[in-house]
Amino acid sequence: MARLALLAVPVALLLSLSFLLLRPASPPLPFSRQQAASGPDRRRLLRVYVAELPRALNHGLLDLYWSLPAADSRIPASSDPDHPPPRPPRAHSPYPDSPLIKQYSAEYWLLASLQPGSSSAPAVRVVADWRDADVVFVPFFATLSAEMELGWGAKGAFRRKEGNEDYRRQREVVDRVTAHPAWRRSGGRDHVFVLTGFVKY
């Protein structure tokens, strides 16, 4: 029995060593992932259609922001790095540096990544026809619209409807998007709206 026990030790060591030397360098992928990695669709990108909205609902809001002569009413004038706006006017309207607004810039950067000539990694493919799209991106700078209403329109609080420029813009976006055939095709399930931050009405 003692000899059998002594013989079992080197056999166990040999099996362990064989396992370590002969095992694959990395664990195999699940079957579905292997298929995806080797199949013809391995380079298929998400197809995005950018909904057609007037410039006034995205980059035009930046033009409007930089044309405002006064500082944001919610902070001291000396704390607003954007107002009064720089002179001479800038060739293009960058996203604001104001700490109240800059943190809500996701929709700006996402739209920029979908523009022709973008240097962003090709994670998606922008298509010209909504019928070819997997998702529809709605390029509305929603948070900038709301922040401008708070800082320059309603002075820190939202009006319900009358005189609320943010509400008017939101209503225009909804009316335009829901009237498009792309919305009717899916009921909006494939539409992407970017809304950052928290606004209490």
From TrEMBL:
Print the keywords alphabetically.
Glycosyltransferase, Golgi apparatus, Signal, Signal-anchor, Transferase, Transmembrane
The GO terms this record gives for MF are: glycosyltransferase activity
The organism's taxonomy opens as: Eukaryota, Viridiplantae, Streptophyta, Embryophyta, Tracheophyta
Describe the location of the Exostosin GT47 domain by residue ranges: 44-196
Is Signal tagged as a keyword? yes
Q: How does it sit in the membrane?
A: Single-pass type II membrane protein
Q: Which organism is it from?
A: Oryza sativa subsp. japonica
| A Pfam family it matches | Exostosin_GT47
Q: Which GO terms describe its cellular component?
A: Golgi membrane
Localized where?
A: Golgi apparatus membrane
Q: Region Disordered: list its residue ranges.
A: 75-96
Q: Where is the signal peptide?
A: 1-27
Q: Which PANTHER family has this protein been placed in?
A: EXOSTOSIN FAMILY PROTEIN, EXOSTOSIN HEPARAN SULFATE GLYCOSYLTRANSFERASE -RELATED
Q: Which family does it belong to?
A: Belongs to the glycosyltransferase 47 family.
Q: What is this protein called?
A: Os04g0670600 protein
